[in-house]
């Protein structure tokens, strides 16, 4: 799927798993949608469901889920710790890939219209999908909660955007939005005091707290010249937060929504809460992620905590994720499985067969099989990834060498550069096989009519170009990795100089091997001008790789 949106509806049921299962079954019944996460909370009596897929399919699944929730959940009997006003309480759409926010707004309003007209729900649109400025903030839309809906609906200013303007005691109301990726994140405290938790939440959340005269807790609220209450902003932008006590865990938490993690990342929120808690005599013991998180947010957190330790950040993604989990105590209240909590990992799926995911023996056996793929291109990328990895290894060892403590950032930077090459070359292992498969698919197209022949020929030419572009990228990235390898041969830990040399040999092999692969594929390309350009560029890359190989070997031999 090239166009992906995510839907994260919250349902006002977190205790009866049979109800939750019927709602998620309705989601999974829609083709083109993948259920990513189901996160029920007993204390909040609320379940966060996450699914993603092609936009039209996601809208359809959300409509069916809303209908099932209205059928099964009776809001007149609902109690829970979390603010709420409907059976399907909120239903945000989030652009993930190939879809703009403007397009997502259109899908959100289509969803709102269908929920109102087809399901009969009372719908308010908020955030980017809001139809008027005063409805942009969810807290404003949901003010008064379920119990305040009769009064709200009697006010013409609060007529719903879609659906009936009449109070439905069973289903309440639903808020629909298009929004940026939001992280629901709770920080655990070593206290049972909701008052202290709230005080910390007010310290950090963007909205802050009401300003008071004299005593900051009990003094009279300060107002401005217009009689409006004056607020003291908190320390974190794009953060909403409250404090609460969770009976299930026996601790108080700071419950936050991070609405723009490019402004306030999860690790910044964690450290800021830790600092504010400490100033109030409270200690943070860990944290809890509700729903899914983007991979980049976890990698950024891992690097942040490694830098605080003055350690190299050029380590594997899995190591960065492990550091992030342990540093923020994300596994304090229960296991944190990256394959189930990181959105990119869940979308790929554990069962997907990828060459890069095979064992070493598995890759060797697959290469030796009768199948023509993986072939030389994938092997070249694999060898290149190994070469880059050796350069990264030397950089990481050098960053931790006793007596070189003041140089850790220098080597960390080299490790990061090398790891970027390593990661891309690893992806190119599978991309090369995918490019070969695209050629086979093109040759398999029908060729009966003149129109079919023309379409088949165009597809073959397009696939052939892709089968040249992929090994060329392998050449470019492998050559780039040699800069890190050379630097590590010259400046890295002397005991690992031979490892850097082997890395250089691997990188050179990747360049030459990928160039051979590109050359043999280029003979089927009609555009001979493009072929000439490929061959000239390839020869230049190969010449530079051979020169770097000799430089690396000379540096290493001089140290022996």
Summarize the structure.
This protein is an alpha+beta fold and 560 residues long.
What does this structure look like?
By secondary structure, this protein is α+β, with helices and mostly antiparallel strands. It has three domains: 4-178, Formiminotransferase, N-terminal subdomain (Formiminotransferase-cyclodeaminase, Chain B, domain 1, 2-Layer Sandwich); 183-348, Formiminotransferase, C-terminal subdomain (Alpha-Beta Plaits); 355-559, Four Helix Bundle (Hemerythrin (Met), subunit A) (Up-down Bundle), CATH 1.20.120. The protein is 52% helix and 14% strand. The protein contains 17 helices and 13 strands. The protein has helices spanning 17-28, 55-72, 101-119, 138-141, 149-154, 194-204, 266-279, 295-308, 317-328, 338-341, 343-348, 360-368, 376-399, 408-443, 450-491, 497-522, 528-559; strands at 4-7, 10-11, 33-41, 46-53, 88-97, 122-127, 173-178, 183-189, 209-210, 231-232, 239-246, 251-258, 284-290. A hairpin with a 4-residue loop joins strand 11 and strand 12 (251-258). The longest helix has 42 residues, at 450-491. The protein is globular and about 80 Å long.
| Number of helical stretches of at least 4 residues | 17
Query: What fold name goes in the CATH topology slot of the largest domain?
Result: Four Helix Bundle (Hemerythrin (Met), subunit A)
Classify the helix fraction into a percent range.
40-55%
In CATH's first tier, which class of the largest domain applies? Mainly Alpha
**Uncertain regions spanning at least 5 consecutive residues:** none
Beta-strand content bin = 5-15%
- Overall geometry comes to globular
What summary fits the major beta sheet? Answer: 7 strands, mixed
What would you report as the Rg, rounded to the nearest angstrom?
A: 28 Å
